[in-house]
Queue: 4 jobs
Job 1
Amino acid sequence: MSTHRKIRMGMIGGGLSSFIGIVHRIAAYIGEEYTLVGGAFDTDYDKALEFAKKLELDPNRTYPNIDTFIEKELELPAEERIEAVVVVTPNFLHYPMAKQLIEAGFNVICEKPVTNTAAEAVELEELVAKHKVVFALTHTYTGYPMVRQMKAMIAEGAIGEIQKVDAQYYQGWINPVIHDKEKRASVWRLDPAKAGQSCCMGDIGVHAFNMVEYTTGLKTAKVLSDLNTLYEDNPLDIDGTAMLRFDNGVRGLVRASQIATAEENNLRIAVYGTKGSLKWEQENPNYLYHLQEGEPMHVLKPGHEYNSEFAAISTKMAPGHPEGIFDSMANIYLGTAKAIRGEEYIDGAFPTIRDGVRGMKFIEAVLASTADGNTWTEIDD
């Protein structure tokens, strides 16, 4: 537990009807590093006030919109002002709201996708550097202890030189609606005005891509993709595969689908090296599988002394007590808190705006590759 005072936190969005808002609040509370002070929780101000009353928040720090939030908070003395703002609005609002907050000097914790375009992400990266604020992007899966153990083992050479990377994220949630014309026309994630340029790759494929670069430390140089909208009147992809070539010549694969019937959140990654391989899956996150030629498979679990320092500080419970998505998100919040306070933290403690830029450039590259007839397309960086 930190001996420092808690960071004053605000939220844009995340009110009564928000599932992801609850996830963020629980994650922030787990490490006892933050206290929720106020925010602009809903476009309906009455609902925002109802939400504030439910959480016993000061109604005077509950604002009708982000403009009022910024104006009124900046009028307060620095020692009372909200320090970190969580953006949990629909996708198309991430960029304009994050931009406003950064320019006003607030630290930002933002849901992904960070923006609708790569150019917007690059602009935010420049603004973060200019205004010297902390920006965390909640690629939640990077917070799992065994993902961090995987990252540490690969960096230490436990599997030798990387030869192949295979990541997938399969869901089936859209299958019940996609085959009905009226239903698919009513899903906001299939509306470019609200979801952005991509549905499947933008929503979950980018998570798999992020996991590839996070765990391996490799940088993707180019992609060749094949995306599927299934129906001509459906504007956004709901399934796709992207082959990757990294800057050192190694090959990889990202597979993503939202029509993988009956799948839930089947995110998996396997990294194969010259000396062995490591495999992890999100639906059983406490197990990291280490395979070596001629050896029994080793299964690593959180909370044990054989794990790295990074995995150890990311584990909150004794061995045998499962930790899940809230704990993973909490580790990102913990790393962000250290950065806000100017304390030392391990590289990779939270995804940054750089991860957001990389993710948006990946999304645009796979879209361009498919549009160009499935050709190799560079990720310009």
Job 2
Amino acid sequence: MNVRKTSAAFAAVATAGASSFFLGATPAMAAPGEPCLDGVLVEPGICELSYTDGVENVFTPTAEMTQLEVLLVGAGGSGADQPEVNTAGYAAAGGGGQVTYIDFSGSTDEIDIAVAAAGGSISTADNGSIADSAANGSDALTTEGSNIGGNSGDNEYEGYSGTLAGGGGAGGDADVANGGDGVIVSSLVAPGSLFENDDRCFGGGGAAGSATAQGFPGCGGGGPIDALGTGLVAAVPNSGGGGGGLTTTQSAELRAGADGVVLVRWNAAPVTLTFDVRGKGVAPAAQEVIPGFAPTAPVAPKAAGFEFKGWFADAALTVPVDFSTPLTESTTYYASWAPTLAATGSTTDAASLPIALGILAAGAGLVVAATARKRRQS
């Protein structure tokens, strides 16, 4: 599946930034926790750790990570430099980085990880027996008589060659001034993959523009800020997008392709839910719950002389438990009890107690009055 960005979508991406559009996880799940170690829970039962820096990293799997998968994104190429205003209308954009996927499931060997830097290293993951890489997109070229947009990282898709040349994307050819399509992550994997529902897009080609034409980039790529070619929007950080190009001089920062990213996903370790009956009755059995899923409400406990009044999330019994709420970490639920009246089996009721006491007092008063009358009459 390939993706072409419209001008409206491009503006939204440029405004959103990398953390919310390209690297963001579902907000309700994205919190570091016990089952994910240093990662975040991005879907029920799925943890993710993002590497965005250019230094070498080591990921150490655990035996509980029965599923372990890695996505590699190469860096984008830069848009061509314009040392002076170009009246002939030549402009070219950079290619998008390659996007690849590796399945490390079943291995507990350390994985050496490197993240692609624009204009430098490529993204790699290697545990000694399994290894792969994602190449960087190429830089665009502009000469007096030739204009060539950068190729995508795997060189499968070439940048357009002409007056206005967009960069090839990781998922498709450039279309004149437009950047080539990027790659949607889910399109790379088979059903059952931890990335199966990941709809993020990486590796789009940069777009070219002039005072009379505006190209639109693939996902993450840079491009003209408007139809008049007055400036560039930089590629989105860590998207693998190619840099844009204009017929006027632009800074190296605005023309630069984006760095790549390496995403590691694994199955989250179960969390434990325990029940504290606070010294009364028999506690329900503890539950092992997949993070992001809700637990099962147990059968209400029983205790002689007490009525069970529900489960609470805190020992002070101020937060009632909602068993439809997903768990993301190990926790304990606490039982609330109310004493029962032994004679009738009824329960005490704080609201009715003053009324009962009033009735008792009134009855006592009637007995006293009757006794006094009998004494006077005798």
Job 3
Amino acid sequence: MELKLLLLLMSLTVAATATTAEYVRPPPRKTLHFPWDRKPSSQPQQVHISLAGDKHIRVTWITNAKSSPSIVEYGTSPGKYSSMAEGETTSYSYLFYSSGKIHHTVIGPLEHDTVYFYRCGGGGPEFQFKTPPSQFPITFAVAGDLGQTGWTKSTLDHIDLCKYDVHLLPGDLSYADYIQNRWDTFGELVQPLASARPWMVTEGNHEKENILLLEDGFESYNARWKMPFEESGSNSNLYYSFEVAGVHTIMLGSYAYYDEYSDQYNWLKADLLKVDRKRTPWLVVLFHVPWYNSNEAHQGEGDEMMATMEPLLHAAGVDIMLAGHVHAYERTKRVYNGKSDPCGAIHITIGDGGNKEGLAQRYKNPQPEWSIFREASFGHGELKMVNSTHAFWSWHRNDDDEPVRSDQVWITSLVSSGCVAEKRPELRKILMAP
């Protein structure tokens, strides 16, 4: 992007003054109910894709036929498949419900920024996706706490309008809440988007279902939404990391053990040791329960995790932290240990995808010094990493049935500000501690 254009866009940035929006919201919308669609038992359903390591994509789908092969045929021309890969399957049961055959197949190596055409299981409809670019710019769509309401559909429609490369979802996907066929309807609802761009997700409280008294409680989530945890050295699908186009993204688990003796904490230290800020100058973190939240809803729920992990992530120079859980939108200044800090992270709460529980409309007053903008409306975010030093964040309210940009800010990376180099001794000390 030319310097003049960059300066012009930066001049349009919203002023950094604390704001609580007074937008008058329309009434809530009902949960969507889908008509019964009896597909052939072998036809792929609920198709979605995710990143699976460098130049690889994981394709996931479900069939009702137990004998359906877990193969994906793919190529760069419609109807012409030059490559094929075979994957693995899983399934699960809960009371009178039995899932279909859940297929996970990793394809690649793939070219960057390229459209591929593919079909699953050797038949059925053809899908297509575009791989992310290998370098800046890259755009992430962000929306958490989706559910399956009319507002969810509006959010998805608006995300579909933006030119994004990867979708980030900080927890609470389907709101199935033990009703297992709601996982299936959610998969069908998001398929048009999730089959065309990678969806990278982490778990929320509504994914924890404790099916058949299983200890971890994430049986259906783990079976359906497999993420690249093994590729990132994690031993749990509840936390992992991935890299794409100059961005190292860490997906943490708010509902996995996170104390200093936990597997997650030790994995996080090991993952941060591998981060090369010359290769990935941007460091982004996602989790479900926000650490900086001035809404009355879910106050203090992230305090213990923050007390354990914030010093580590601050020392690592995390640029942006994205969370859900609170059904509203909020953006902070750069903050650390409860106070403004030029080397701290910007925290964004975006649990406003459209869930059935409605909006969290009560905020604490006075507005904290670290809180810049907050509004209880449904919507989605767009995070564009323009280059190694500048990113543009915008939040788009969808309560008008059209995406209205209601908040925006240019963000300068901590690498370019010197914070990362300044804190490197502190980081090494923490990472190398037993």
Job 4
Amino acid sequence: MFSTFEPYRIKAVEPIPLTTRDNRQKYLEEVAFNPNRLKANQVTIDFLTDSGSNALSCKQWSAMMQADESYAGADSFYTFESTVKAITGFPFIVPVHQGRAAEKILFKVLLSEAEVAYSNGFFDTTREHILQNKIKAINIDTETESRDFKGNIDCRKLEEMLSKEDQKVGVVVMTITNGERGGLPVSISNIKEASAICRKHNVFFYADACRFAENTWFVKTREKGFMDKTPSQIALEMFNEFDGCIISAKKDGLCNIGGIFATRQREVYEKFSEECILAEGHITYGGLAGRDLEAIAVGLTEALDEHYLQHRIEMVQEFGRMLEFNGATILEPGGHAIFIDAEKALSHIPRNQHPAWALTCALYVEGGIRAYEYGNLKFGYKDENGKEAFLHRELVRLAIPRRVYTMSHLKYVAEVFGKIMQNASNVRGLTIIRFPSFLGLFEIEMKEV
């Protein structure tokens, strides 16, 4: 039973675009059946991503008004730096304009002589940046799953992979929470075991910690020995196991832009800083305005508030139950999104007609809801020889922005899904007209079969 309420009052409101079904059908046809290309004012409920779509607090707005916009050495940088140091324990901190900027620079620095990188689940841009360096990016899925921490890396496999003498491993990346596995958490004990293995083999161990705060709540409520610790204490213990981290402040930074690189390795920091100056700007602003640095400093602190985290996680869990009540088969809910099994929802659509994409289109036409395909189009559906090989489940992700929607919005979405299920046979599959080379989901063009 959902028992918590929003631990805040709403101080400003924004009208939601309301459109007709006929108009939505027309809008979708105009963008070649790609909801990613819709205008925001054509979308009623936007679950495309939880990245950068957060609502800022009054404290964040207040801090932004007091920002120092000096080019170098601004007071706002030192406010940002001290906050990140306190949360992570890392001594060397560099801001960047968003998380993918940090990973692009970091992997250029770390992977110059490497052949392979491993992870519990690479995010799509993380994987692409590794591939751009002509390095293999391999996920190590967990076979002996922890019931409560299904985002874990398989440490037995990790030890086996790092023991191979015929490869040069550049880095092991622990994604927290594990977006590849539906935003499910990683345990502190698993992080510590993986850290020890990496140290044994002298391999860099970095965290992709975009949703680190949500992970601390799962640890507090599920892992033995952490119930009496605060999310901040858990975060510090977690980061202590890594050589460094990259963070998109657009998630658990509760901001609309911004990213973080943090490390305890001076040599890596110095190399990163040199690249940052070329790509992002001076290392005390990293492509951000002083007001962004101030907002991130406040947002990181607010994201570790226990009342906020409890509400955030329970809200997602309850949303999953509402969708199941309306006929959805979902993955176990994580901390930021619900993943719907589109093949079960639209069993009449074959894989080569992309049922997950078809469901995203149906959600938009029926209710103005924008969702994200998390299936074979996102992860690639062709093998090394260019032949069709559907390797991923056909999922649809509903990513929930932080502090933006209330339970009544989520109830509406669940009811729209239920209406789609009542007439599921009317939903049509799609075929590809154009597919760009890199991360093609954003510009792909489709047509109905």
